[in-house]
Amino acid sequence: MFDKLKEKLGLKKKTKAEEGSNLESSLTTGLGKPIGDLDAFIDDLKVSLLEADVSLVTAEKLSDNLQQKLRGKRIKFGENREIVLKEAVKSTIAEMLNVKIPNLYSLASSKSPFVILLVGMNGTGKTTTAAKLAYEFKKRNHYVVVAAADTFRAGAIDQIFIHGEKLGVKVVKHQAGSDPASVAFDAISHASKFPKSVVIIDTAGRMQTNRNLLEEMKKIKRVSKPDFTILTVDALSGNDALNQAKMFDEAVGVDAIVVTKIDSDTKGGSILSLIYELKKPVILVGNGQGYEDLMEFDPNWYIKNVID
Ligand SMILES: Nc1nc2c(ncn2[C@@H]2O[C@H](COP(=O)(O)OP(=O)(O)O)[C@@H](O)[C@H]2O)c(=O)[nH]1
Ligand SMILES: [Mg+2]
Fold first, then answer.
1. In this predicted model, what pLDDT tens digit does every residue of 241-279 receive, in sequence order?
2. Residue ranges per structural domain of the chain
3. Helix axes 38-51, 56-70, angle to 10 degrees
4. 27 CA distance to ligand 1 middle (Å)
């Protein structure tokens, strides 16, 4: 996972011999040595970031912040240049990821029914994430209702219905082609009869008609008044993930993002751009196709995975 970025950042561990020579030469002055060619390091880093799916705006911001942090810095006795650079990159990324992450599971305990709307393009993992969330909420003793509000294809209704049967959770469905907002409405009415209930609205994401899709999402949102709107983006879609996120956020309003398929993403850069440019939290990441493959997002885990 994320190997490309790690490899490209070029922040590899130094050999003992290299560390030794560094130590020796830094003995020459009490002030330490200059950090060396910072511009070359930062230029290389920027290219690596772009190649790893970090957006241009985010890569430039990271480079500028790093430049400021390291300008005039000297490598003191006992310090290692590679480690100093690596720690500086880590702390710069950490600052850029600093967006408050709400805990969905605690939020859901504060209200019943708690309504979650899932939006996103086709194939980004809405239905799979809906099933994973249903699993997580059921495990936490909530009464879970899933609204099969992707009414565009009969297959989509069957897909979520089968998940519901496997998981033992209620799926509210209408016929294919019916109004998705009314499916959401019925699911919420049903959930209202139960304490500690959570409604998860699975929606359509067809690509041919983005305008209609966004109008449909707006209507579902108006009718269902969700407590939390989640956008799913596919980690493999790279820079397009950011464009999709901007589009959905402008049209529908998004509270948080789930980045799916990180198990097959070797690049890892899209998470950084999403958080930095959208200023929206990534709350969960999908790391497989099983129901248990939904992890809470931890910035420290991310930083460790892209650099160490
Ligand atoms: N490897 C992997 N595959 C995933 C993940 N999430 C979803 N998928 C797969 O991506 C494909 C599309 O997912 P689906 O939930 O149907 O997307 P939707 O069109 O947005 O509802 C399916 O084959 C899923 O099994 C994930 O986290 N990891
Ligand atoms: Mg679907």
1. 999 999 999 999 999 999 999 999 878 899 999 999 999
2. 3-96, 104-307
3. 160
4. 56
Regarding the beta carbon of 1 and ligand 1, being less than 6 Å apart is answered no
> Hey, whose CA ends up nearest to atom 5 of ligand 1?
261
Three-state DSSP at 272 gives: helix
Instruction: Render 27-85 in DSSP notation, one character per residue.
Output: TT-TT-EE---HHHHHHHHHHHHHHTT--HHHHHHHHHHHHHHHTT-EE-TT--HHHHH
270: CA distance to ligand 1 center in Å? 17
For residue 303, how far is its CA from the centre of ligand 1 (angstroms)? 25
CATH of 104-307, one of 3.40.50.720, 3.40.50.300, 3.40.1180.10, 3.40.50.2000: 3.40.50.300
* Interior angle at CA 192, CA 190 and CA 194, nearest 5: 90
Mutate to test the pocket of ligand 1, among 135, 153, 289, 295 (most ligand atoms within 8 A of CB): 289
Q: What are phi and psi of 58, to 5 degrees?
A: -70, -40
Top mutation candidate among 1, 117, 122, 128 for ligand 1, by most atoms within 8 Å of CB: 128
Query: Which residue's entry shows tokens 């500690």?
Result: 196
Q: Is the CB of 263 under 6 A from ligand 1?
A: yes
Express each pLDDT in 192-234 by its tens digit: 999 999 999 999 987 655 668 888 899 999 999 999 999 999 9
Q: What pTM did the predictor assign? A: 0.91
Lowest mean pLDDT among 40-54, 124-138, 156-170: 40-54
Q: Which of 190, 197, 125 is nearest to 160 (CA)?
A: 125
The protein residue whose alpha carbon is closest to atom 25 in ligand 1 is 289
CATH number of 3-96: 1.20.120.140
